[in-house]
């Protein structure tokens, strides 16, 4: 819950302070409140970020972790924002902002529900293509691992990989690795 949710319902925000004092609500982060006994999943940090910044898109290492295609455990939440958009800020969890533009920002985005919060995550094929696009930031080994795991799990076809590779302008980079699969 956010203070904005109360004002939309016509309630004063001082209600949140009272509920926290009575221990009926717990302050999760700046401007975020939750029930104290709620079930928490391993993706709860992504849900917190999505609740605070609903238009941001989870991408790259965080999306790979969401789709379970990596052994990496990112300590930051990787978010895609529009090229000229304002970067979201949070105290916790730490955020890593990546700028996307045009079709790379809008295509291949899936909506999921995590802990009752709508979460926007890049799809499998889009995430793999993005990993090759940002291979200098995350490492080529991570991008190769993502391509192998996604190909092995058959969660996306080679045509989908190729479509997003051309969309992200990394088709020539991905071609030899896709041919080896």
Summarize, please.
By secondary structure, the protein is of the alpha+beta class. It has helices at about 5-10, 15-20, 45-50, 60-65, 105, 125-135, 135-140, 140-155, 160-165, 170-180; strands at about 25-30, 30-35, 55-60, 75-80, 95-100, 110-115, 115-120.
Descriptive overview:
By secondary structure, this protein is an alpha+beta fold. It has 2 domains: 1-38, no CATH class; 40-180, no CATH class. The chain is built from 10 helices and 7 strands. The protein has helices at 3-8, 14-21, 44-52, 60-67, 103-106, 124-133, 135-138, 140-153, 158-167, 171-180, and strands at residues 26-29, 32-34, 57-58, 77-82, 95-100, 109-114, 117-122. The chain has a 3-stranded mixed sheet with strand order 3-4-5. The protein has a two-stranded antiparallel ribbon with strand order 1-2. The chain has a two-stranded antiparallel sheet with strand order 6-7. α4 (60-67) packs antiparallel against α6 (124-133) and α6 crosses α9 (158-167). The longest helix has 14 residues, at 140-153. The termini are far apart.
List keywords for this structure.
single chain, 181 residues, alpha+beta, 2 domains, three-stranded mixed sheet, two-stranded antiparallel sheet, 10 helices, 7 strands, 46% helix, elongated
Derived structural class: alpha+beta
SSE pattern, N- to C-terminal: HHEEHEHEEHEEHHHHH
Strand order of the largest sheet: 3-4-5
Helix content: 40-55%
